[in-house]
Amino acid sequence: MAELNLVEAVNHALAYEMEHDPAVLVLGEDVGVNGGVFRATVGLQARFGPARVLDTPLAETAIAGTAIGMAAMGLKPVAEIQFSGFIYPTIDHIVNHASRLRNRTRGRLSCPMVLRTPSGGGIHAPEHHSENPEALFTNVPGLRVVVPSSPQRAYGLLLAAIRDPDPVVFLEPTRLYRLFKQEVADDGEALPLDVCFTLRAGNDITLVSWGATLQEVQAAADLLAAEGVMAEVLDVATLKPLDMETILESVTRTGRCVIVHEAAQTGGFGAEIAAGLAEHGLYSLLAPVRRVAAYDVVVPLARLESQYLPSVERIVDAVRKTMEAS
Amino acid sequence: MAELNLVEAVNHALAYEMEHDPAVLVLGEDVGVNGGVFRATVGLQARFGPARVLDTPLAETAIAGTAIGMAAMGLKPVAEIQFSGFIYPTIDHIVNHASRLRNRTRGRLSCPMVLRTPSGGGIHAPEHHSENPEALFTNVPGLRVVVPSSPQRAYGLLLAAIRDPDPVVFLEPTRLYRLFKQEVADDGEALPLDVCFTLRAGNDITLVSWGATLQEVQAAADLLAAEGVMAEVLDVATLKPLDMETILESVTRTGRCVIVHEAAQTGGFGAEIAAGLAEHGLYSLLAPVRRVAAYDVVVPLARLESQYLPSVERIVDAVRKTMEAS
Amino acid sequence: MTSVSQFQVDFTRFLDPQGEALAPLPDFAQDPAVLLPLYRAMHLTRIFDSKAIALQRTGKLGTFASALGQEAVGVGVASAMAGEDVLVPSYRDHGAQFLRGVKMEEVLLYWGGDESGSNYAGPRSDFPVCVPIATQVCHAAGAAYAFKLREEARVAVCFLGDGATSKGDFYEGLNFAAAWQAPMVVIINNNQWAISVPRERQTAARTLAQKAIAAGIEGVQVDGNDIVAVRHAAQQALDKARDGGGPAVIEAISYRLGDHTTADDATRYRDAEAVEKQWAFEPILRLRNYLLRLEAWDAKREEQLVKECTEAVNAAVEAYLATPPPPVTAMFDQLFATLPPAMQAQLDTALRFENKQGGGHG
Amino acid sequence: MTSVSQFQVDFTRFLDPQGEALAPLPDFAQDPAVLLPLYRAMHLTRIFDSKAIALQRTGKLGTFASALGQEAVGVGVASAMAGEDVLVPSYRDHGAQFLRGVKMEEVLLYWGGDESGSNYAGPRSDFPVCVPIATQVCHAAGAAYAFKLREEARVAVCFLGDGATSKGDFYEGLNFAAAWQAPMVVIINNNQWAISVPRERQTAARTLAQKAIAAGIEGVQVDGNDIVAVRHAAQQALDKARDGGGPAVIEAISYRLGDHTTADDATRYRDAEAVEKQWAFEPILRLRNYLLRLEAWDAKREEQLVKECTEAVNAAVEAYLATPPPPVTAMFDQLFATLPPAMQAQLDTALRFENKQGGGHG
Ligand SMILES: Cc1ncc(C[n+]2csc(CCOP(=O)(O)OP(=O)(O)O)c2C)c(N)n1
Ligand SMILES: Cc1ncc(C[n+]2csc(CCOP(=O)(O)OP(=O)(O)O)c2C)c(N)n1
Ligand SMILES: [Mg+2]
Ligand SMILES: [Mg+2]
Fold first, then answer.
1. What is the whole-number distance in angstroms between the Cα of residue D270 and the centre of ligand 4?
2. Which residue in D171, D172, D139 sits closest to D157, CA to CA?
3. Which among D167, D331, D343 has CB closest to A304?
4. Is the ipTM reported for this complex over the cut 0.90?
5. Which of A246, A103, B59 is nearest to C330 (CA)?
6. d(CA D30, CA D277)
7. pLDDT digits (tens, 9 = 90+) for B186-223
8. Where are the domains of chain D?
C-alpha cells in the first residue's frame, strides 16, 4: 500500500490496466516521452512502448475521433486532453459518435473509451486551463461523466471507467493532483461507477458536491460542526448516470441541502440535483435548496481566481441561511 | 402586415436588418444561391449580393471562427449552421472566443454575432437533424441563448439578436418552420431578449416551456381547461439570461409547475428552472416540480421519433399528477 | 531561394466514355469474370437508388441520398477490398456496402428510420453510415491504427465527398494516419457538388488530391466514372497500405447526376443542361460499352440482369416494408451495455406511454 | 496517367549565421536605419523574456512563454506590417506585439493574471493573445474578409506554431481565406517543438509550408533566424495580399532555445547538447554579425542598447507590479455590453464576499 497523490493514483490505475489488458492504450499530446504535462502518464511509454503510449499530433478533434475508431475496433483507448479548455473540439465526436455508436449499430459496434482531462481552477494557471466543462457532457445520452475527489477514488473510478464497455468522460480536478496523499492499494480494485459516496455522516443538512470543491465543503463542514451543525457530505463522483437515490435518502433525513460546484451556476449540473429534489424530495425539504457555484462569468485570470471559486466562506454562509429557514 | 410562417419570419428579419445595417452579413452552407436548405435565406443573395450572403466551404468550425473574426472587426455576421447536429464543431469557438472576447479585452473588441440553427425533431428528418443542443450553451457565461416559438417572436427576437452587441445562439424549431402562419408586421420592431412571454394566463398551474414543445403545452392547456384546470403558459424564449422573475411570479400564484422541453431530461435546461424554484419559490410550491422532457436516450431515427418527443398525453398526465398533489 | 520540395498530382483514366481503352489495361480489366460482377453491382445500386427515391416520394422512406452517376466509385473501391478490411462510409456509399455484404433491406431500414438497419448481418466490423461530414476520416485513422498495433493485415477504407475535404476532421485524420503510417485509404468521391456549392467554390485548390500533400502523403486523381481506373488505383493504395506503406488519398472525379438527397431540388442552383451533358460520361454506360467491345455482353443479358436486379431490389423492399417498427424499449436497450438503474423510471414512463403518444406530432 | 498539377516549396535565406550575404540582399537590408530598429526590437524581446522568466521564478508572474531564439520571426514580420494591418497572435508573439505598440506592462499584466493586459492602448484593433491552438487562423480569415468586404487596404497577419499546423482550424481557416481570396498572411513559427513533440512526429509532411497547397495557395519556407529573409518574405506576402492576391503562408524555420513555457522542463525530452548547438544560428547574433560587417555597429553601441532596453523593461516591470489587482466587479463589467438584470444578484454576492474569500485556495 503506497501513499499516493491524485495524479499518481491516476498513473497507477493506467499502469495497472495497461499491464493487465493489452487492449488498453494511452494517447494524447505530450503523454509519451514527457509523461504528460501533469505527469499523469509518466513512465508509461518506457514501460509499454510508444505503440501503446502515443504522442499524438496537436489536434483534439482527431484525438477523440481516432480513439473512437480504435475503440470500435476492439481497443480501449484512454485519451488525454491536456487541459480542460481544449476539450471543446472533442465534443462533436463525443456527442455524435462515441455516445451513440452502440445504439446506432444496435450493439454491433461499441465505444469503450475514456476521455481524461485535468479540470477546474485553483492553481493560477493560464487562460483556458481552469474550466469545468462537465455540463457540456451531462445532457448527452449514452455517456458517463465521472469526477474523482481523492487519490483512492481516482484510482478506483478510473479503473472502472477504463473497464466500462461504454464511453466515459473523466474529469480530474487539477487542484487536487498534488494537494494531498492517501493510502492507495494498487490492487486493481475498481469502484462502482453509478453511486455517490458519503464522505461524512450528519443529520442536519446535506452538502452535495464533487471534485475539488469537496475540499471547501469538508472544511465548511468542520467549521459548522463546531457551531453544532452536523452536515452530511456527499461526493457525487459519477455525475451521469446520477445516483439520485443516495442524495434523496440523505435529504429525506436532513430536510436541507446545499449543492456546491465549481462550474458556473446557471445551467450547471447542480441544477439537475436541485431539480431532482424539487421533484422527488419536495415534501422533505425544510428550506430552499441553495447552490454555491461559480458566478456566471468567464473564468477570470489568476488575479481574480480566488474571488471566483466557491469558497468555504460562501458555503458556510449558504448553510447558515439554509439552517435559519424553516 | 403579412401572414408569415416561422421560416419566412426569419427571412424577413434577416432582410430587414441587412437592408438597414450594412454591417450585417449572412454566411453558412448553401445559404446563398440555394437560399438555405430550409429556405431561411432565400432571396437574400440576389438582393444583397454574394459578398454579404456567403456560401461557405463545408466547415462549421471555420464558420463560427471566421464569424468571430468578422465581428471583432466591426461586422455583424449571422452564421447559419445547417442542422443542429452539426453545431458541435462550433462550440470551441463559441465558448473559448465568441463569449469571451469582450471580457478578455476589457471591451476593446467585442463579438456581435448570431449563430442560427434549425433545432429539434418532429419532421422525420435523418440522423443528427433533430437535436436540441441548448444545454451545451446555457452553462456558458457571456452568451445569450434564444429559442422563438412563433413567427412573430422569431421575427422580433432575431432582430434583437442581430442588434445585440454580444453573441447570441438562436435555435429555430424546425418543426415550427411551416407549421402555422401568423400576422407579422415587418416593421423592424425587435422584442426584448431577456424576458419570458406569457402565452396564456391561468391560476391553477404554471406550464413553462420554449420552442416547439409549446405546441403540445398549449394543446394540453386546452384539454386541461376543459377539465377545469386553468394553466398559465410561459414561453421562456430567452433561456440565457433567464427571466426567473416572471416564472417565480407565476408559480407564486399557482403553486404548481410543470416544465416541458424537447431535449433529454438529465442536465437539460429545465433543471435550471426547477432549481430556481427549489431555491426561490420553495415556499409557494404546493406540489413537486415535474419535468416532461425527452428521455435520456439518443434521439431515435424516425420510426420511434413520436415516442421520444414529449407529447400532449405526457404533459396532461404530469399536470394531473401535479394537481393531485397537495 | 532554393526549391526544397516538389509535388505533383497525377490523373488516371483507362476507359474513355465510349469504352475504348486509352492505355494498356490492368490484368483484371481483361477478364470479364472480374468485370461482370462489378457491372451487376453498379446496376443494382442504380436500380436500388431509383426504387428508394420512389419509396421516399410515396412516403414509405425518409430522406435518401442516391449515388446516381457515381456507382463506379463505391463499387470499384469495394471490389478491391479484402473481406477483413473495414469500410468507413459516408451516407452515399451503399454501392460499396452492398458489395461488402450489407443487405439492401438494411440500408432501407436505416433511411426508413430504424437503427436496426445498421446492425449489418454481413460485414460485422464495417462502420455504419456516417452523416456528420468528414468525421469518419478520424474513425478510419483510429481503426487503421488498431490494425497496425495488432499487426493485422487489414486496411480501413474511408469515403467522403468533395465538400467534406474542407472540414478539419479530414485533414486531422489524414495527418494522424500519415504520422502513424497507419493502413488507411481515403476515397474522395468528388461528385462536383456539396449540395448547392460547386467544387470550385469549396476550395481554391485546383485538385482535391493535392490536399494529401498537407499530410505528407500521396494523392492521386482518377476518373471516377471509369471503374477500371477506380479499382486499379484502389488496389494499388490498398496493397501499399497493407504492406506498411501508410495511408493514401484517391480523388475519384465523378458527377452527381441526381439531387443531393430526396430533400433537395437541384434545379434551384444548377443548370439542367449542364447535368444532361454529364450523362454521356456515366460509369455504367462506359463499362457496358467496353464489355460490348469485349463481346462479353449483349442486349439479352442486359435485360436479364436488369430483371434480376429489379427482383432483388423488390424483395429487399418487401422485407423492409414488412419490418415492424421497433418497440419503444429499443431506445433504451442499446444505449449502454447495461441500462443504468437511474434510467429505469424513464423506461417505465416510456412503456406506459408506448403508442399512446403523438399528440401534436407524429 | 497524366500529371495535372505540380507544386514546389522554396526556401529563402539571405544571411548565413556569420552574417554573410548568400544572395543579393533586398534594398531595406542595405539600410542600417531600417535594420537598427529591428535589432533593437529583437534585443528588447530577449531581455523582456529573461526578465519575465525571472519574475515567474520569484512568484511575481504566472506561466510565461518566451520567444527565446525566435525573435526574428515576430520582429521581422511585424516590421513589414502597416499600422492599420491587424495582428492575430498566438501566445509567443510579444516580439511582434511590442513593435506594433503593445506595451510591455500590458503583456506582463496578461501573464500576471489581469485581463486589462489585453486592452492594448496601442494597436486597438489587434487581436489579443490566443491560447487555444490554431483557432486564431479562423479569426484572421474572418478579419481579412471584413477588410475585403469594406474595401480597406488592410491585411490580417496570423502567427501560429509548428504543432498548430496539425489542427483543423489551421486548415479550415486557410481554406476559407483562400476560397474568399481574403487578405491574410499566415506565419508558421516552426520552432521545431510543440512542447515535447518534435516537428518530425507532428506530421509526415516534409515541410509545413506545403500544407498551404491543400488550400490552393502558396507556401514558402524562410530561415526564421534570418530577419532579412523573414521581413522580405512577409513584405512580399503582405503586398500581394493587400493587392487582392489572396492569402499566403510563410513557414519560418527557427528553434525554441528555451523551455516551452515556465511550466515546462525541456530537459525531460530533449538533448541539452542539441539545443546548445542551435545557439550558433540564433537571430540576434546573426544580425549583429551582419551589422558589424556593414560597420553599422560596435561594442559600445551594443552596451548602450542593452542598457537602454533593460531600463525600458525594468520600467515596464515596475508599472506592472504597481498595478493593483482588479476589483471583483471586473468579472462582471465586461461580460456583456450591459449586465443582464438576471446577474445582479450574483454581482451582489460577489461584492459581499469580495476579499473575504480564499478558504481552501487562493
Ligand atoms: C458536419 C456537417 N455539416 C453539414 C452537413 C449537412 N450536409 C449533408 S451532405 C452535405 C454536403 C456534402 O457534400 P460532399 O462532401 O461533396 O458530399 P456529397 O453529398 O456530394 O456526396 C451537407 C452540407 C452534415 N451532414 N455534416
Ligand atoms: C487546442 C489546444 N490544445 C492544447 C494546448 C496546450 N498547448 C499549449 S502550447 C502547445 C504546443 C504548441 O506547439 P506549437 O504550435 O509548435 O507552438 P509553440 O508553443 O512551439 O510556439 C500545447 C499542446 C492548447 N493551448 N490549445
Ligand atoms: Mg459532393
Ligand atoms: Mg513549436
1. 14
2. D139
3. D331
4. yes
5. A103
6. 29
7. 999 999 999 999 999 999 999 999 999 999 999 999 99
8. 11-323, 326-362
Across C25-45, average pLDDT: 97
CB A209 within 8 A of CB A246: no
- Percentage of chain D surpassing pLDDT 90? 98
Please give the grid coordinates belonging to residue B299: 434521439
Q: At what angle do helices D283-294 and D227-242 cross, to 10 degrees?
A: 100
In 3D, which of D66, D119, D120 has the Cα closest to residue D95? D66
- Please report which helix (H) or strand (E) contains residue A317, including its range: helix A312-324
CA distance B134 to B119: 9
- The reported pLDDT for the residue numbered D360 is 43
What is the helix, strand, coil percentage profile of chain A, to 5? Answer: 40, 20, 40
DSSP secondary structure code for residue A178 in this structure: T
- Stretch D172-188: mean pLDDT, rounded? 98
The residue whose CA has the least distance to atom 18 of ligand 1 is: C161
> How far is D197 from B232, CA to CA, in rounded Å?
60
For ligand 1, say whether the CB of C256 is within 6 Å of any of its atoms: yes
What does the angle CA B25 – CA B30 – CA B36 come to, to the nearest 5 degrees?
A: 80
- CB–CB of A211/A147 below 8 Å? yes
Pick from C272, C171, C283: nearest CA to C228: C283
Ligand nearest to the CA of A30: 2
Give the max Cα distance, chain D. 76
Mutate to test the pocket of ligand 2, among D111, D170, D192, D195 (most ligand atoms within 8 A of CB): D195
Residue C221: strand pairing partners: C11, C251
Confidence bin at D70 (pLDDT 50/70/90): very high
Measured distance CA(C160)–CA(C182) in Å, rounded: 18
Can you tell me the mean pLDDT for D80-100? 98
- Domain with residues D11-323, CATH architecture: 3-Layer(aba) Sandwich (3.40)
What chain B holds in terms of domains, given with CATH numbers, is: 2-184 (3.40.50.970), 197-325 (3.40.50.920)
Quick one: pLDDT at residue D361?
45
Partner-chain contact A274 B269, CB within 8 Å: no
Calculate the CA dihedral of residues C314, C315, C320, C321 and round it to 10 degrees.
Answer: 70
Chain C partners (3+ C-beta pairs within 8 A): A, B, D
Angle at Cα B137 formed by Cα B131 and Cα A240, nearest 5°? 75
C-alpha grid cell, residue B128: 443528427
Cis (ω within 30 of 0) for the bond into A241? yes
| CA D180 to centroid of ligand 3, rounded, Å | 20
Whole-number Cα distances in Å, C84 to A73, C72, D112: 12, 21, 56
Going by C-alpha positions, the residue among D330, D357, D312, D335 that lies closest to residue D113 is D330
Task: Tell me the CA–centroid distance for residue C162 and ligand 3, in Å.
Answer: 5
Q: H/E/C letters for each residue in B31-74?
A: CCCCCCCCCCCCCHHHHHCCCCEEECCCCHHHHHHHHHHHHHCC
Give the Cα separation of A111 and C203 in Å (integer). Answer: 34
